[in-house]
């Protein structure tokens, strides 16, 4: 078979494939660059990209934490609820926050953690601290049950079995796969004396323990332009379904149609004529077109991205690869050499019949 790759009807593939992933944690992303005529295949949702944050500057005591303070911190933090400031990956390593410092992993390593272990909570999600452990120089917080099974070794011990090989019952029932996360707050050398409020303040880049509405918690994780639009109940081309729902609420009705090219789309309708009516079109889970209809006014249509490319695929990562459309490019003849019996430096003969060179004394064949 010829060695070639041809990708046809990219837009149709995207429109039909994306809805299967829209309702779950999206770990497989597709984006198309029209100018480059290439299909970009990645595994990181740009909605999980953390927004910039300011390092905390909480004054810390020079004294080592005491036994009574340890119990107090555990009592205050245990079962406390918070809103996530960024997506929390699963996996036993989790996220490491250095007190008044940076978060690791970050960048492409952070993306790979989500790709490898999955997502515990999306940005702006509500979570609970389910376990707190104080070690020599760190405090470990398990979120939503943590990333590890609780009784893993007990599940390998059974009782009540007969000597004839009969099966008994295990000391602990089989547990479902854990879906929690882990956050480790690391100090320099030792955990200092500190209050529960100071612990919450130090965790602010990852968890927000303040009392606020789910809408405020969600918009705090968005870029300022999109956050302002959501709070002002405005829809921008380029938003996803969650953003539109937080901004406008549930639509009055939904319509599924095919455009002139046969591609499926869904339209959310807000308002009823003769009142002002807004039609929000989705392809996959992205808003691609907005129509504003008002009595006595010309129809207003917006179909250009208004989110500064937040969800349009501008985000790239080390594990994203690009597959060019069309046939593979022809090989450069100057870069490859065909097998040859010529000695190094020996030139090729002219492209025409050459007389046969016989060794001395050999009989020529006529």
Structure description:
With 366 residues, the chain is an alpha+beta fold. The protein folds into two domains: 10-49 and 222-302, no CATH class; 67-161 and 168-216, no CATH class. The protein has eight helices and 19 strands. The strands form five sheets. A seven-stranded mixed beta sheet has the order 6-5-12-9-8-3-13. Strand 1 (29-33) and strand 2 form a beta hairpin. Helix 7 (224-231) packs across helix 8. The longest helix is centred in the first third of the chain and has 11 residues, at 67-77. The chain is flat and about 110 Å long. The two termini are 43 Å apart. Mean pLDDT is 79; it is low at 1-43 and 314-323.
What topology emerges from the helices and strands here?
Layout lengths: L9 H8 L1 H4 L6 E5 L4 E5 L24 H11 L3 E4 L3 E2 L5 E4 L4 E2 L2 H11 L1 E3 L4 E9 L3 E6 L14 E2 L9 E2 L10 E6 L9 H7 L4 E2 L5 H6 L4 H8 L9 H8 L4 E6 L5 E7 L6 E7 L2 E8 L6 E3 L18 E4 L42
Parallel strand pairs: 5-12
Antiparallel strand pairs: 1-2, 2-19, 3-8, 3-13, 4-7, 5-6, 8-9, 9-12, 10-11, 14-15, 15-16, 16-17, 17-18
